[in-house]
Amino acid sequence: MSTVGRSNPEYVVARVRARRGALYDDEEYRKLTRMSPSEIARFMEESTYEAEINALGSRHGGVDLIEYALNRNLAAQFEAILDWSEGELYELIARYLRKFDAWNVKTVIRGVYTGTTQEAIEVDLIRAGEFDDRRIRRLLETDSIEAVIEVLDDTIYGDPLEEAFAEYEETGVLVPLENAVDRAFYDQLLDGLGRDKPTRQYEKFLKAEIDLRNARNALRLARSGADVDPAEYFIDGGQLFTRETLSRLARSLDELVEHIDGSPYADALGPALRELEAADSLIEFEHATDAALLAYGDRLGTIYPVSVTPVISYILAKEREVENIRAIARGKEAGLSATEIEEELVIT
After folding, report:
1. Which pLDDT score, from 0 to 100, does residue 288 have?
2. Is 216 exposed, middle or buried (0-12, 13-18, 19+ CB in 10 A)?
C-alpha cells in the first residue's frame, strides 16, 4: 500500500474482476430466501465468507453470526483492495471508502436518536473506512447527539454537524444531520480530482451518485411530513438538479422520473429507469436507484476498463451483496415469506 509513486490500475482491476466473479447472483439470493438463518450461515461458509463464519461461529449464532460475518468480510475485502493499490489509485479508492465512516456516523446518530442499545448499533457498523477502533468505540459510548458531534470535532464531519444541530433541534427530524454528513463526504470526494480522461469518467459516476442521492433525499424528506424545503438539503456536485428543480420535483415521483428520463443518464440506466417508473413506495424507489447506479457504473467501467471506475463498481456490487444477504437474514428473523423478502432485495 502506498500513496506515492505510479498508479497500478492494471493489477488492481484484474484482482477485482476475479473477486467480482465470485459474488452471489440473483438465483443464489432467491435460494437464500428459502433457507433458515442457520442454513444461510452454512451456505456462506461454503463461499467467500468461510473465514469469517469459522472465526465468529463460536461466539455468535443465527442472524447475529451472519451480520458480523458480512461486515467483517466487507471490511477485509476493501482493505485488501487498498493494500494492492498504489499512488493516485490508492488515494481515489481511500477517499471513496470514507463512505463507510459516513455510514457509521449516521448509524450511531440514528441509534442515539431512537434509544437503540450499543450492542444493536455495533452490529450495523461497517469498519471499512478510516475511523480506527478507538473512535468507533467512543462513538458507540455516546448517549446524545451532542456527544456524537464532540467525538467527531476533529474530522470532516464535525463542523457540518455542529452547524446542522440547531436545525435538527428545531425540526425534530434527522435529515439535517444526515445530510450534513453526506455533504461533507461528497465535498471531499470531488475535491481536486485529476483531469485525465479516465478520472473525468470517474467524476461522471460520482456526479450520478450525487444526483441519485439528491433524488432519494428529496423524496424521503417530502414523505416525512416535515415542513422543510428539500432544496435546503441539496448536495452540490451533481449535474441533473438545481436547488430549485429539486424542490419542485420532490413533490411528484412521476415528474422526478420524467426528469431523469430526459437526462444524460437515460440510455445508460436502461431497465432500471423502468423500475423507477413502476415504483409505488419509497423503498422501491430507493432500490431502483441503487440498481440504476450499479448499471451506470458498470457501463462507464467498460469505457476505460483499466481505471478506478471498475474498482468502484466492484465496491458497489459487493455492498449490494452484503445488503441483500442482510435483508434476507433479517426478513427470516421477522417471519417474512420468501416473496416478501425478495421485494426487499436489489436484484436485476
Report:
1. 83
2. middle
The yes-or-no verdict on residue 319 having pLDDT over 90 is: yes
Q: For residues 41 and 304, is the Cβ–Cβ distance under 8 A?
A: no
The conformation of residue 191, written as its DSSP 8-state character, comes to T
What burial letters (b/e) apply to 127-147, b meaning 16+ CB within 10 Å? bbbebeeebbebbbebeebee
Instruction: Please tell me which residue, 218 or 42, carries the higher pLDDT value.
Output: 42
- Coil vs helix vs strand at 108: helix
Confidence of residue 39 (pLDDT cuts 50, 70, 90): very high
Q: What is the pTM of this model?
A: 0.89
DSSP string, 70-102: HHHHHHHHHHHHHHH--HHHHHHHHHHHTHHHH
Q: What is the pLDDT of residue 5?
A: 58
- At position 100, the amino acid (one-letter code) is F
CA angle 46, 18, 97 (to 5 degrees): 95
Cα separation, 70 vs 114, whole angstroms: 24
CA distance 196 to 72: 35
Cα–Cα distance, 57 to 195 (Å, whole number)? 48
Question: How does pLDDT run across 281-314, given as a tens digit for each residue?
Answer: 778 778 888 888 998 899 999 999 999 999 999 9
Is residue 304 helix, strand or coil? coil
